[in-house]
Amino acid sequence: MTKYISREMKRYNYLISEIDSVYHEAAVKFGLSDSAMSILYAICDNGEGCLLHEICFYTGISKQTINSALRKLEREEIVYLEPLNAKSKKVYLTEKGRDLAEKTAFRILQMEDEIFASWKKEDVDKYLELTESYLVHLKEKINGL
Q1: What pLDDT, on the 0 to 100 scale, is given for residue 86?
Q2: How far are the Cα atoms of 4, 17, 30, 109 from residue 39, in angstroms, in the given order?
Q3: Which pTM does this prediction carry?
Q4: How many domains does the chain fold into?
């Protein structure tokens, strides 16, 4: 078996790991678990409330882990869940949750926006285009396994 990974792929993997590490560091600074931070981020990014399955999809975190984190956030009166039907629940922030999200996840979203705003529009467009292309091709290859 050939164990060859291009320098570019190694660099890309390193950068992805570093970005994940920065988000983890933010969660730690805010006194949140990665799961709690991801839930708050998904709700802030989505707007008012977010379907449970959307949180799992957006974060890439298992339903079991999200449910555990949500139970803790419910006990802390950060979120509440409302059933939409027999299979779907929507997650909402309480007033306390909105205050927490403003101080945590929303700040991260603002920082991300500031970074993109500091780039030339063409660079942002190219970055998004290449990232989307990478994702599409990776999905195709994984589906072919």
Answers
A1: 83
A2: 37, 20, 14, 13
A3: 0.90
A4: 1
